[in-house]
Amino acid sequence: MKKGLLITLGVIVLVVLFGALVFGGVYNNLVTKEEGVNSAWSQVENVYQRRADLVPNLVATVKGYAAHEKETLQNVVEARSKISKMNISPEMLNNPDSLAKFQEAQTQLTSALSRLLVVVERYPNLKASQNFLALQTQLEGTENRITVERKRFNEAAQDFNAFRRRFPNIIAAKVMGFKNKAYFQADQDAKTVPQVKF
User: Fold this and answer.
1) What CA–CA distance (Å, rounded) separates 32 from 3?
2) What SS3 state is found at 53?
3) Residue-wise pLDDT tens digits, 175-192
4) Which end of the chain is more exposed for a tag (fewer CB within 10 A), N or C?
5) pTM exceeds 0.70 for this model
């Protein structure tokens, strides 16, 4: 009888030990993948901050040439100000609504900057200014970086979400409080095909 009890206890201990090892491995992988998402998010914030830092210089340069374009300049300044007042935190990545609000604010700044660049077309001296050309080049490079970093963030979020949803990972994720990460989505305007008229 004692031998059977010892074997049963041994099997139970092995099962519990195996379960703990699996659970620990899943937990460690979730932590690693979540840190990958957070790191990708930091890079997104980094390039958005670079753009926000370029805006005052761009506005100041344009202001000297286009003083009567106050509304356009004001829209750029207000859009940048709105972004700087947003509370950006890693918790935002677990909430698609918060990320959508952040994305909407960035879209407004992108739109305001696009209108500013259209205004610039009316000022040939400004377009030829070395300061403006340097700022425009930096801004274009920054927009490209934003696209790349958003793509990398979405890839990291997809990797995390897929790993989290697999069995038995989903059990450990729920027990430990790991939630799906939100994705950057295409702007609503991107779904409309532009009309080209000559």
Assistant:
1) 43
2) helix
3) 888 888 888 776 655 545
4) C
5) no
